[in-house]
Amino acid sequence: MKSVTPSSRPLLYVLYAIVLTLILLYLRFPKEKFKIFCENQVEQLFTDSSCSITDIGYSFPAAIVFEKVKIGKTEGEQQSIVAVDQIKIHPGIKFWSTFKIGGKLYSGTLKASLIVDRAEKNYRLVDIVFNNLNLDEIVKDQGILNRKVTGNLGGSGNFQAQWATPIKGQGKAQIKISSGSLEFLQPVLSLTALRYDQISFDMSYTEQLDIGTGKLKGADINAEFEGNVNIMTSLLTSRVNMSGLLEPRREFLQTHPLEAKMVKQYAARYKRSALPFKLGGTVSNPTFRFSR
């Protein structure tokens, strides 16, 4: 019989807790102790974090429901929070190794399947789908308060990791953000904010967040972009390294003659109508410049 290593125990304990809680909640066993136990296990999974769960309940026929879950983390003076209104977990076809997850968060929904491989000591989150997440609420909870970001976030993807390092894994996702705006820290072509109809891109995650060719369709400009984000301990201090092409819309140029003249000069310099740009700095304080 294979032994369980100390590093793999936290995730195993969470899985045991889910199954035991389902049984004991069904039998009307006092749930306060289980709530505290689950909070402690989440704090062990996410280093230097705090967790609070308002309530844990049972849903027929075999689901456990977590209400108002908050996971917080503080880095210096910055605090970030992930807030989930509800998480519902129930066993899949293979009772002990597959689980179905559904959630309500940031005014949207999330669903996924969790597959646990005890032989390989890893887990996979597959068929992840999230819809209509409020980007404004997410950004505020992540501590980005120096500018306003709005929109509806949706997408799909997958993620997998070892039990010993449950957060440091690898994953892929397709992202779409619609009907929003992004305030600039410094004006770009006199614009103080970027209004967009849709932003779409593919991304993958290992040691860093790699963003494949993405497209932005905006009210004033269209753009293509790609690059990466070097994930640090704090999301706010993560380094941004992106580049792309920006093309002002004809309607914008017609109503902004000074900017139209500037765009014409840039186009002559770079010998193309779409202007090359680079995005650097950090997530909390990005920098923008026109450059090859």
Walkthrough of the structure:
With 292 residues, the protein is an alpha+beta fold. It has two domains: 1-135, no CATH class; 169-292, no CATH class. It has helices at 9-26, 32-45, 135-141, 250-255, 257-270, and strands at residues 49-59, 63-75, 78-91, 98-105, 108-117, 122-134, 149-162, 170-188, 191-205, 209-218, 221-230, 239-248, 275-281, 286-290. The protein has a 14-stranded antiparallel beta sheet. β8 (170-188) and β9 form a beta hairpin. The longest helix has 18 residues, at 9-26. The model has no long low-confidence stretch (mean pLDDT 88).
Radius of gyration: 22 Å
Distance between the termini: 59 Å
What share of the residues lie within helices?
10-25%
What is the chain-wise order of helices and strands?
A: HHEEEEEEHEEEEEEHHEE
Mean pLDDT: 88
Shape: elongated
Instruction: Determine the structural class based on helices, strands and strand pairing.
Output: alpha+beta
Q: List the uncertain runs.
A: none
